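Feature request, filed as a ticket because there's no other form

It would be nice if the structure record came with a short human-readable summary line next to the C-alpha cells. Right now we just get the raw output. Example of a typical job, pasted below so the devs can see what we mean:
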Amino acid sequence: MSQLPESGLSLEDLRTQVDEIDGRIHDALMERARAEAGIQAARHAAGEGASLFHPERDADMMRQMVERHQGDLPLSTVEHLWRDLICACTSLQADTAVHLDGSAELIEMLDLARFYFGFSVELVPAADAADVVGAVTASVGDLGLVALTDRAELPWWRGLSEAGAQVQARLPFVVLDERPADLPALVLAKADSMIDNADIAVYDARWSDLLPGKLMDQGIEVLSFFRSASGVDALLAISGDLSEEDVFKACTDAGAEPDVLRRVGGYAAPIDGDPEETFAGEDEEPQE
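Raw output as currently delivered:
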C-alpha cells in the first residue's frame, strides 16, 4: 500500500489513527460528563440549585481555549463545540429554558442560541425584550437573550434588578472576522447578588432632557438608548473597577449628569479572536 508523502503513513494507517483519536475523544467526553455531574451534585449538597450558566467560569474556560488554540481548525468551530459540550453536560442536571427576544429576527436569535447553548436546551420565543426580562425574573433558573441595538424600541432594561434578571454576559464573547452567529446580544440571568468583579459593569441611566455631552470621552459605552418626549434612557457599560459614585462622576464630567443611575449587571470583556484586528463597535452613542 502506498504511503502519503507528508506523514509517511498509508491512508489506511491514517484512518486507523483517526479512529483511535475519536475513541479517546469520546472517552474524554464521557469522563467530562461524569465530572460535571459530580460538580452539580456538590452544588446541590451545598444548597445551590443546578444552573446552566456560570458566566465567570464560562469566560475563564473560553479564554483558556483561545490561548491554547492553534492549527487550521477555525477557532469559531472549536468555540461552538466547546460551548455545546459545556451546556449539554450541564443541562443533564439543570432544567433550563432560554427566552429569545422577539423584536429581533427569529432565525438570527435561533442561530445565536444554538451556537452558544447547543441543541439540548429548550428555546422559548418571547414578544420582545421586556417579555424576556419578565420571563427570566419569574423563573427559577431560565436565561434570556436580548438583541443589542443602538436605538431600542423600548427601555426594556428598566425591568432589570438585583433580585431579578440581570445582564450577565455579552455576545459574541470571542470576536472574530466573519464569524457565525455574530448578532450582538446580552445574556440575562438571575443571581444571588450582583457580580462585583465583572470586567464591565452595566448601568441603567436616565435623563429628563436630551442627553448632552460625550460619554465616550469618560470611557462610557452606550450599549443602547431609548428617546421619548420625557427624556432619554440608556444602558451604559463601563469598567467594573469603578464604584457607582465614580460612574456618576464620569457622567457628570461628560456633561450628562443622570437623574437615575443604578447598576443592573456586568459581564466579562470580549476576547479578540483576531489579535491583528481591533474590536470595533464600542464607539456608538446617541448623537444630538
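Something like this underneath would help us a lot:
The radius of gyration is 22 Å.
Helices lie at 11-45, 55-68, 75-91, 106-117, 129-138, 244-253.
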